[in-house]
Amino acid sequence: MDSDEHKRVLDPEHDTAALKALTHPLRIQLLGLLRQDGPATASELAARTGESSASASYHLRVLAKYAFIAEAEHRDGRERRWRALHTVTSWSNETMESTAAGRAFVSLARRRQIEHLERSLARHEADMAAGRLGEEWVEPSGISDLMPRLTAESLTELFDTVAAKLDELTVRDADDPRAEHVVFLAAGLPLAPHEPAPGAHTIDRKDLNP
To answer: Residue 2's closest CA among 92, 90, 85, 88?
Structure first.
């Protein structure tokens, strides 16, 4: 459930440095792994990402500097473990649109989400093939590619409805041992009509008259 205390809301005016810190692809991946799989050390995360422990450790410290993660526990003489401080990073598209840095961040973040989807699809297929997930997950798993015609108000309502239902189901399944982490991405990307190519001939009513 993503209540306010579980969200990190970014603002381009007050979080310029944090926005810049989060544009690094490895940092986004490390943060995602901590949110998805729970606390881990730099060495453990390095093994999952194919990076060196030194590189993972450096980028984890940057995430900690800007309050995306924190130490999970103290172990004298042993490698520190890190945990995510929030379950989701959020922002207002309208606010981000007001600055060049905000626009650049949103564009990059969306592309990183697509990369996350690709990695998640590969992991899902591998887990299913190896039998790490039960057959009950075969039917509900998948990706929808729909193109409805909606107004801006309807698209907003759709996102609000999905978010509310997702919160409800997350609470309901919180203590169910059958529950698994599910990667759920939703996209609403309005597309303007294609403009005719320069010099292209369009049919006019008079062209149909003899």
So the answer is: 88
Give, in degrees to the nearest 5, the angle at Cα 130 between 126 and 88.
45
At residue 18, φ and ψ (nearest 5 deg) are -65, -40
Q: Percent of the chain having pLDDT more than 90?
A: 73
CA distances from 30 to 40, 110, 171 (A): 10, 16, 26
Write the class of the CATH domain 4-142: mainly alpha
Q: What is the secondary structure of 6-30 as a DSSP string?
A: GEEEE-TTT-HHHHHHTTSHHHHHH
Residue 69 has phi, psi (to 5 degrees) of: -135, 170
Tell me whether strands 69-73 and 81-84 are parallel, antiparallel or unpaired.
antiparallel
Quick one: 28 exposed, middle or buried, by C-beta within 10 A (0-12, 13-18, 19+)? Answer: buried
State residue 118 phi and psi, 5-degree precision: -65, -45
Sign of CA dihedral 196, 197, 199, 201: negative
Tokens coding 66:
């800007």
Report the distance separating Cα 76 and Cα 190, nearest Å: 53
Q: Which residues of the chain have pLDDT under 70?
A: 1-5, 74-77, 197-210
